[in-house]
């Protein structure tokens, strides 16, 4: 239930971030929530239906959990331009 509500916030933030990326060519730091939602979704899926990879229940955190078998790390780029933006 909590994860479903987080996905609603994920969708809203993604739409807002799309406009921010369009006008600033940078990724807003608020997307850390989106990375956290993806991370928690991966852990729940790994535990339940995705891989049946572990019998340990996933922790209730959006932060990294290095001691849990399923980890997801996404690098944060400072700019999306790569030097070709105006």
Provide a compact summary of the structure.
The chain is 45% helix and 0% strand. The chain is elongated and about 45 Å long.
Report the uncertain regions.
none
- Mean pLDDT across all residues, rounded? 80
Alpha-carbon Rg, integer: 15 Å
DSSP strand tally = 0
Structural class: mainly alpha
Q: Indicate the proportion of strand residues.
A: under 5%
How far do the termini sit from each other? 44 Å
Q: Counting H and I runs of at least 4 residues, what is the number of helices? A: 2
Q: What is the 3D shape?
A: elongated
Largest sheet: none
Which bin fits the share of residues in helices?
A: 40-55%
N-to-C series of helices and strands: HH
Question: What order do the helices and strands come in, and which of them pair?
Answer:
Blueprint: H1 2-24, H2 32-47
Helix pairs in contact: 1-2
């Amino acid at each position: 239930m909590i994860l479903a509500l987080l996905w609603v916030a994920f969708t809203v933030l993604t739409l807002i971030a799309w406009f921010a990326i369009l006008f600033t060519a940078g990724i807003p730091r608020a997307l850390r929530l989106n990375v956290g939602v993806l991370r928690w979704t991966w852990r729940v899926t790994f535990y339940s239906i995705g891989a049946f990879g572990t019998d340990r229940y996933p922790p209730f955190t959006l932060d990294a959990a290095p001691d849990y078998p399923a980890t997801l790390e996404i690098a944060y780029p400072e700019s999306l331009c790569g030097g070709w933006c105006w």
